[in-house]
Write a structure and sequence with these properties.
With 365 residues, the protein is an alpha+beta fold. Helices cover 31% and strands 18% of the residues. Bound molecules: adenosine-5'-triphosphate (ATP) and magnesium ion.
Length: 365
């Protein structure tokens, strides 16, 4: 290994240059870097280099199992100055939270991006479930996006676990705001349905530009209360099914309608998505009982994603959305095994002897 300077250094036939900080997290710092091969000086382009504070990090080990269009690709891993460095593909628009802050107040709002990003988040979660990996820190800062390509990739597997039997005894991990009730109640076994809950919270954040459950919570108890305020109190039967000891809910009132919460936070007519379909989907995802939450494959087939399935919509830059439905053979086999249908793009029908639209016909009439 040869050092030029911190701005330019060489490791394993790669020369890294123009290092610029793009993110800081709990476990390290992330830089944008240019990379070229040192032998042939071939430019390989821009990448993201994560420099971990800790010598031992589970993330690279876990990520070696993974390869999917909606999971960030790990390219190389090396040690430098006693720290683990991990090279990832670069997502040019950074994380989803940054994207929301930049584009929520655009004239069209997020427009089709709400469905485009949410669809890919659930597609990534279906893949992780098939690999028996739980992420446990799904939140908008850990989802990386590209506006021009219309892609979303799940990143930051620092809290992730490989759970061969599909369940894991969890204590509070990740970020309180996105933790499902079974984790906040501490005693439950959690599974991929914990990530589905967190993804539901991300989806509502994309629509509201603020967290659905109040973000002000000092600990698990307070966060549970924030959830209760929106979903209503849980029952004894809920706790039994969740696998947690019954504790009395603070609220006595019946479930408050999610529709009312949205009406209060979001003026009618804002956003281009179908509000009815969105509320229906969120009602299905945000359930106390893990077994009542839908599998990501079922979520992808929900009418909320109609604009992707219909084949009529495209990105603002004219890019077709067909690539979102190009499922790999591995994904198709997983859906078949679980007896779910893979969402298919509806074919656009062409009418024979089309006479043109009313507007086109007008001049002759
Ligand atoms: N491949 C990438 N492309 C573009 N930006 C990235 C990439 N990886 C990380 N970032 C940026 O760096 C931030 C921190 O990265 P990451 O979440 O992986 O680190 P972390 O230390 O584990 O964070 P935390 O534990 O606080 O969630 C991200 O929120 C994102 O803004
Ligand atoms: Mg992070």
């Amino acid at each position: 290994m040869e050092y030029y300077s911190d701005m330019e250094f060489e490791v394993d036939d790669f020369v890294f240059s123009n290092k610029k900080k793009i993110g800081t997290g709990t476990f390290g710092r992330v830089y944008k870097v240019n990379v070229r091969t040192s032998s042939s000086q071939k430019d390989l382009g821009k990448f993201a280099l994560k420099v971990l504070d800790d010598r031992h990090d589970p993330e690279p080990k876990l990520m070696r199992r993974l390869g999917h269009p909606n999971v960030i690709t790990l390219i190389h891993r090396f040690k430098r100055r006693g720290r683990v460095n991990v090279l990832y593909e670069l997502m040019e628009d950074g994380d989803l939270l940054k994207f929301l802050r930049q584009h929520y107040s655009d004239p069209e709002g997020l427009g089709i991006y709400t469905e485009v990003f949410a669809f890919q988040l659930f597609r990534g979660l279906a893949y992780l479930a098939s690999k028996r990996v739980v992420h446990l820190d799904i939140k908008s800062e850990n989802l990386l996006v590209s506006r021009a390509r219309g892609t979303l990739k799940i990143a930051d597997f620092g809290c992730g676990r490989f759970i061969p039997d599909g369940r894991w005894q969890s204590h509070s991990v990740g970020t309180l705001l996105f933790n499902p009730p079974e984790i906040l109640m501490r005693t439950a076994l959690c599974s991929h349905s914990a990530d589905v809950w967190a993804a539901g919270v991300v989806l509502s954040e994309m629509v509201l530009n603020r967290p659905l459950f109040s973000s002000w919570a000092k600990g698990e108890r307070m966060q549970l209360r924030n959830i209760e305020k929106v979903l209503g109190p849980w029952t004894r039967a809920d706790c039994a099914k969740m696998g947690v000891e019954y504790r009395r809910p603070r609220l006595r009132r019946p479930r408050r309608s999610l529709g009312k919460v949205f009406r209060k936070l979001l003026p009618a007519g804002s956003g281009t998505h179908d509000r009815g379909a969105l509320l229906d989907l969120l009602r299905q995802i945000l359930r106390y009982r893990q077994d009542e939450r839908p599998h990501p494959w079922q979520i992808m087939a929900h009418p909320f994603f109609e604009r992707i399935i219909s084949g009529r919509e495209e990105l603002p830059n004219g890019r077709d959305l067909g690539h979102l439905l190009h499922f790999t053979d591995e994904e198709r086999a997983d859906a078949r095994r679980l007896r779910f249908d893979v969402p298919k793009r509806r074919k656009r029908r062409r009418r024979k002897g089309r006479r043109g639209t009313a507007r086109e016909r007008q001049p002759e009439e």
